[in-house]
Amino acid sequence: MSDNQTSLTPNTREIDITKKTVKMQVSATDKIISTIIYILFSLFAFMCVYPFYSIIINTISANDLSAKGEIIFWPKGIHFQNYIDVFKIPGLGNAFMISLGRTVIGTLLTVGASAFLGFMFAQEDMWGKKFWYRFTIITMFFNAGIIPWYLTMRSLHLTDNFLAYILPSVVAPFFIILVKTFVEATPKELQQAASIDGAGIFTIFYKVILPISKPILATVAIFSAVNQWNSFQDTLLLVTDSKLYSLQFILYNYINQASSLSTMVNLQNAGSTAMATLATKQTSTSIRMTVTIIVVAPILLVYPIFQRFFVKGIIIGAVKG
Amino acid sequence: MRSQSMRSNSFRKFLYISPFMLLLAVFAYYPLYGWVYAFFDYTPPIPLSQSEFVGFKWFHSLVENQVKIDQLMQVIWNTFGISGLGILFSWLPMIFAIFLTEIKAVRFRKFIQTVTTLPNFISWVLVYSLAFSMFSSEGMVNGFLHMTGLTDSPTMFLQSSEHVWWTMWAWATWKTLGWSAILYIAAIMGIDESLYEAAYVDGATRMQVIRHVVLPSMMPTYFVLLMLQIASFLNNGLEQYFVFQNAFNKDTIQVLDLYVYNLAMGGGSYSVSVAISMLKSVISVVLLFSVNGLSKMLRGEGIV
């Protein structure tokens, strides 16, 4: 934790220097510039946070007010009915499981494959190593295009198939670069010692490499999980079976059909004893925003905790890639 | 004897990775075979094997009459416009990083950095959903304008054909600015401290330090990223434009990737669509080699 934090605060030592020697030179223009910098950054930070904040307060506010766009700065008429009602939409629970499933399985496989391939490409002796490494890395720089991709996936019967969410992302060149760089930076003696003790390649990988690579594997895992969770295009192209819809895809559909869904939920509720008041009656706005929060919540929860891994990942990747 | 066992050992290592290489062959290389659809008169559900071979018919058809030329030109124009805006403002993350590291209040700086990188991690569908909530006719922005009495009737921000390139650029910038700045922040961290010291001893002001110490040290990073951006000039991606497209902005939002998608999945013209895809990929690879060559010429090393 601290390691990365210091690395993200670059000029700590320079700051002292600035204070000592530059004190006299802090001119009026410098002050104005500082103020402008602070204002601009605050403004941009506000633009980044406000959309999330405003949608959250809207989902817990009276639905008749949120539908008119009147909830702008703070919630009014707080209630949590929306989060109960939204799961009455058929398909949402299923989509949640699909997204969760592809995220968990996809991430496990991608991390495993990246770790193994990163380790293997760091080996000195492998038949055709240079060629296979290039064969892997080159795929970052070209693609056949989405339609040729779609047509070939279809010929492999990977349409309407859960495997289509998992298999294409198992071998991920960028992650392999990350692991390879990391493994190459670890002392060679570790592997040599294990090898002299008679450990085979898999034992070395499992007993030596995996434990010491934890930091970089965490980075790979978090990138890969976010990619899986956010993935939309593969559902759009390859899936017509609504049982395999991912949460992102369902959200996209809901944005366009929110009004009919709200009517449906309201009809369901009409039968129950607790009659919905105007404030808890579902509107297209309340449905749309509540689903949005459900889709974005995992990212919002995970992101602040793992931010340092993301930063580490992109920096190592940039140095090497 | 020994060397033979080593050779067999090295081949065994290859065997261990071969299943993964096979996966890569299937999902990254085999789709190139999909290019053959461009040379057939393919209309599903008739399989490719029973489709008629038509040679370069679809490539010719792209420019066979003025209407088609105009349509394709508009798409190319949009691609150039939106990618061009991106390149025109490619220095933004660098400036963002420079001024962010200038902030002396550590907590404030960390807060800004955390908050501004967040949008990079949400999908385009979510961005669209946020955009819809903020800017639709019943959204917060119109609500605010109405409440403060600035407007009587809601402004249709999203269903507008005006300024589409700019709004697309703005959303992309909103999403990626903080994230893209990280590489430059790393570059700033790598600057030799003695450079700063020397500058301050010489009596340089903050602005002068930025201009003469910080900016020059970031040029290599900027150059590489700019080259990569130029190399992917034609690859705007599909998702952003797909989620933001509607009947009103269709003419100005259709970039090549979206056009190719709409042609095939919307119009069923798979073969034409693959033909365009193919041209696009080939041009992209040529672009990549060109900027790589340029980089070798200017810096002595390539970018890939």
From TrEMBL, chain A:
Bilayer disposition of the protein: Multi-pass membrane protein
TM stretches of this protein: 32-53, 95-119, 131-150, 162-183, 204-226, 287-306
PROSITE patterns: ABC_TM1
One Pfam family in the UniProt entry: BPD_transp_1
InterPro entries for this protein: MetI-like, MetI-like_sf
Domain spans labelled ABC transmembrane type-1: 96-306
Keywords: Cell membrane, Membrane, Transmembrane, Transmembrane helix, Transport
Superkingdom of origin organism: Bacteria
Subcellular localization, as worded in the UniProt entry: Cell membrane
PANTHER family reported in the protein's UniProt record: ABC TRANSPORTER PERMEASE PROTEIN MG189-RELATED-RELATED (PTHR43744), POLYGALACTURONAN_RHAMNOGALACTURONAN TRANSPORT SYSTEM PERMEASE PROTEIN YTCP (PTHR43744:SF9)
Membership in a protein family: Belongs to the binding-protein-dependent transport system permease family.
Name the record gives this protein: Aldouronate transport system permease protein
The species this protein was found in: Paenibacillus silagei
UniProtKB/TrEMBL annotation, chain B:
Name of the protein in question: Aldouronate transport system permease protein
Domain of life: Bacteria
PROSITE patterns found in the cross-reference section: ABC_TM1 (PS50928)
SUPFAM superfamilies the record matches: MetI-like
Keyword Transmembrane among UniProt keywords: yes
Phylogenetic classification of the source organism: Bacteria, Bacillati, Bacillota, Bacilli, Bacillales
PANTHER family: BLL4140 PROTEIN
Family designation: Belongs to the binding-protein-dependent transport system permease family.
Entry keywords, A to Z: Cell membrane, Membrane, Transmembrane, Transmembrane helix, Transport
Family matches, as CDD domains: TM_PBP2
ABC transmembrane type-1 domain mapped to chain residues: 76-291
Pfam families membership: BPD_transp_1 (PF00528)
Membrane topology designation: Multi-pass membrane protein
TM ranges: 20-40, 75-100, 121-145, 165-191, 212-234, 270-291
Keyword field contains Nucleotide-binding: no
Location relative to the cell: Cell membrane
InterPro entries, alphabetized: MetI-like, MetI-like_sf, UgpAE/MalFG_permease
